[in-house]
Design goal:
Shape: globular
CATH superfamily: Phosphoenolpyruvate-binding domains
Number of strands: 8
Structural class: alpha/beta
Distance between the termini: 62 Å
Helix content: 40-55%
Radius of gyration: 18 Å
Strand order of the largest sheet: 3-2-1-8-7-6-5-4
CATH architecture: Alpha-Beta Barrel
Order of helices and strands: HEHEHEHEHHEHEHHEHEH
Number of helices: 11
Length: 255
Amino acid sequence: MNLPDNPFLAAIRAGQPQIGLWVTLSDPFAAEAVASAGYDWVLIDMEHSPNDLKSVMAQLQVFAAHSTTPIVRPDWNDPVKVKRLLDIGAPGLLFPMVQSVAEAQAAVAATRYPPRGIRGVAGTTRANAFGRIQNYFTRIEDEIAVLIQAETLSAVAQVEDMADTDGVDGVFFGPADIAADMGFLGQPMHEDVWAKILPAAHRLIAKGIPVGTLVMDPAFAKRLLGEGFTFVACGSDAGLLARGSDALLAKMRAG
């Protein structure tokens, strides 16, 4: 048995736009409701959702039966957490709040075996089909998507250097946290926020570096894809449930 290719990683390396969804409900049954929708990728969130390793693994098992690639966001740039997520088969990681080249290098090192990094070695894991994938150790580092988040003005200012870190596959801009850093808490779509993000993003795009983000406005998400962003999430499962519930009740109460 050989390690399969990572379709999300192949797509962003080829510059093919990838439409995503945030998955935050932390339950495999909820994930299954999303899995057959046909999104190119989803983000299973551990930073701002009550996910743990067991719930993440259960959701990875759900998405394994579908074409959507699940990317996992750990709650921090923590090599122990990263090691465990990779062992349960996460095909890619989105590292939150990366603030420097050194932190980008640390993120990559957590996904690499010695001597290139610090990932601990386990022989029988879900990631290697319990020892059945014969070329796992020789190929896995080419198939793990390593994405870093720029979420402050300081990170945006350093983003080109961070993106040039060997092993970083893409940069994700976090407009909500950038907005907070600029004094616009709760206003991720503020024009001043995007006046900071877009020039930095376009410089990365011009260098061939995949760029992504999360916005809740589908029209703006489509605009970003048209401008060269490669992986853009356009909503969340919790948001769809909440807004759908509100809209249905409003219709029933109207008139």
